[in-house]
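Second attempt. The first submission of tripeptidyl-peptidase II had a stray character pasted in from the spreadsheet, which I only caught after the job came back as garbage. Lesson logged: always re-copy from the clean sequence file. Corrected sequence (589 aa) follows.
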Amino acid sequence: MVAITFLRLAALVSACAGVIGSAMVSTLQLHEARKGVPAGFSLHGAASPDTVLNLRMALVQNDFPGLEERLYDVSTPSSANYGKHLSKAEVEQYVAPKPESVTAVNAWLADNGLSGTPISAAGDWIAVQLPVSKANKLLGAQFSVYSDDATGRQVIRTLSYSIPAELKGHLDLVHPTITFSDIQPLLPVVSPLLQANPQAENIAANPNAVPASCNSLVNNKTAIVITPACLQALYGIPATPATQSSNTLGVSGFLGQFANNADLNLFLTTFRPDISPDTSFDTQTLDDGQNSQDPAAAGVEANLDIQYTFGVASGVPTNFISVGDNNKDGLFGFLDIINFLLNQTAPPQVLTTSYGANEGPISPMLVQNLCNAYAQLGARGTSILFASGDGGVAGSQGGTTCSDFVPTFPSGCPFLTSVGATSLPDSGIETAASFSSGGFSNIFPTPPYQKDAVDAYVAGLEGAEYNLTAKFNQSGRAYPDVSAQGVDFAIVVNGVFNLVSGTSASSPTFATVIALINDHRIAAGKPALGFLNPFLYSSAGASALNDITTGANPGCDSTGFPATEGWDPVTGLGTPDFAKLLAAALALP
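This time the job returned cleanly.
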């Protein structure tokens, strides 16, 4: 509908471009700016005037507040409309730009010899190509070349840009302009090789609470190793195969991380011999994505995600969604994959992603637009889960010098479920993993569903180390929401067993629990859970989780946040108790 409108308006654009364009050139208003070059980047000089920029422009959505209201209405257990997820067309009605916005932006572009191509189903995102010289003039910007000090990668960005005053309320943002960040797999540790066939070398449990299935021999020493059987024992996850073919689980893949079928088969043969070793996953691609089956191309992150979704969510149809480097959003493909799924008639009921970045280097308006896209997919009935990060309170990866705590991206978005990490010490009592990122967004306020839990936690903090005004935004959206095991997961990469750790193991683990619960709900004639947080923070949801009360997430020259009774910014509300969560979920409408 909107794309057709763009074409039909061509004649009007030509007629009015001169009037609108001449007014706009002289009335540029600052739209976005950052104070200086972000830490970790260096300025190399002005960009060549002839370099062509591929810009993305977001038009103001006509009624996002209305969509947000509907999202909460279908996701809040006490609502009479719980579970009545919206259709593709219903969502697009809320986010499609108004005709006057389409007219104004197209006229401005045409007056400057440019045209926009819609790149989202609702028409709220358009793509524009133009040289640096024209972009500098059109946006009152100074596009320059910057390099990432760590990788040497160069990008063309500006520290500020403006838009015509007449486009305020029509044009929401231009990108990439002031965004510098890179995403990374949230997988910080790869440990030495496991001995061959570790499942066969499981030993009897020590006289503590550690399940026997969690004990293995690693390099001739007894150690706790996370395997599918271990997770099933810890969280009561059944091995019974799912039955509903309409219930699907999506696994995001970025940065050339490929999931290998041969490695999956060896993993299943070793750890889930009750599942056929010929089991395979479906692959969907976008942005020139692929999924090479060359053994040497097997990715640690992709293999981890696929092996544990298949190894724990028994029988749930799983799709590996490979996003290539030719992304159309200038945001690592994060927005592209959501628009890709929004354009599907039946997107997956669960989507897990184990990649992230720090919130600060990204344009706040861009963060908001991506978050709005998550709300759209949530309203369609998809549960979106993200790894919270592996840097404690020091951000996505840690290792940075900081005084204030560093929020991660996109965990600060209130419309997704952020997953932190726990570990299993010899005592057998789950504790917070020290790397588990958690904190408070500097962009989004505390959403209603978590306000009571967060206020109670903040009120309980004591000591000068937790100076509320100096360390973090106490009124921000808090994360993670939940947690799961994240230390020493056994995986297979290029035919070799390894141990890996990170919240990137925790997110697919919790996603498998939700996928299996959806299987039961659908079998009972009920809809999938969809956006999880209002349910998880309800009394029924919170009481179905194992509260983690020990550990902390140090960083920024501090001991970080402490895990305590109730919600905390290390482990969230806690880890899953499958039987309790299933009972609570089946009791929902």
